[in-house]
Prior knowledge:
Structural class: alpha+beta
Shape: rod-shaped
Organism: Comamonas aquatica DA1877
Radius of gyration: 42 Å
CATH class of the largest domain: Mainly Alpha
Pfam families: Flagellin_N
Domain Flagellin N-terminal: 9-142
Order of helices and strands: HHHHEEEEHEEEEEEEHHHH
Number of domains: 2
Number of helices: 9
GO molecular function: structural molecule activity
Number of strands: 11
Family: Belongs to the bacterial flagellin family.
Amino acid sequence: MSITRLGTANMYDRTISNISKQQAELASQMEHTTAGKRVLRASDDPVAAALAERARTRLDRIETDKRMLDAQTATVEYAEGTLGEINSAVQELRTLLVQAGNGTYNQTQRDTLVEQLTSLRAQILKYSNRTDSNGLPLFRGLDTQANTPFPNGGNGIQSGQPNSSEYTITNSLDGALAFFSGKTGNGVLAVDANPANQGKAHTDAGVIKDPATATALTVPVTISFHDDNGVLSYSLDGGTTMLPYKAGDAIDVAGMALTISGEPAVGDSFTVKPSETISVFDAIDRAISTVRNGGNPDGSTNSGALAHGIAQSLAELDTALNRISTVRGVAGDLLNQAKRMNNTLDARDEQVQAQRVAAEDYDSEGMVKAIAQLKTQETAVSAALQSYASIQKLSLFDYIR
């Protein structure tokens, strides 16, 4: 039988080790309780730590998507507001164009209007070339190389930048659709007046009655005026059939009802042909040219050419306004998409936050247990310190005293 001797020094060592262990446990418990987290480091719970880390990674991605979406939304809002300014400028230009057709105006007064029209044209060009905070044109489509994309004859302009991911919208609008998809005339057929016309007749843009016939037109049709035994008449494409002309009556030509007003001269003609694509800038330039050249060499007004040109330009500007409104509508739809995406990101953020909390944070019941454990640990440390104080007195010298 062996007798094990426990010396005082050995008891001191064991007590100090126990106190250190208890204090370390107390410090860890205080750290977790103060942070409100069950898992502070991977060693606490490797699986939960991994789940929490993945949740934080997803939260960072969601936050990045939100910032990107906010930036794109701000750009689209700026572009939509710019389209509103362009729309207002074109509307004002249209009003001035109607004013230029006033029969009481002389060429000097119309020249004043030309200056205003030219100024508005410059404003519209400036608006169409606005850039975002990164210096990229708002209406570039996919054309990011051109510093001044409009007008460039449509070269390099592509239609619409697609969404690059689930939670992004395009950060530019389709400039090709907004500014380069207009049509001459009424959008299907256009009417040109012969520059050599001597009379005072003019036409409207025409109303399509038979779309199939109108769209099938490939060869221009000419309306010519003749003297048919003292009666002013017209024929189509130089045919022998003469029909008496009556100002304001609609003429059926190529599936379109065309109204000719005023007093044509014998030999005057108008040509009906398929509409062509025209940019808003070219349409404005044609309108300005019509007003600028509305006078005869003798100073009188070339009323026929002026009225005809204004009627055609008004129709073309109306088409341009429709295109601008269409792109503005696209901008509104993009903003609605962004709002829905943002709501989805908020919902995902809450979901992932809940997953992170479940992985590493205390719930209400767990927090109560943690506080209880902390109090228990504080008691254990206090008891250990008191025990050490008592054991410290157990020496031979103290016994002899």
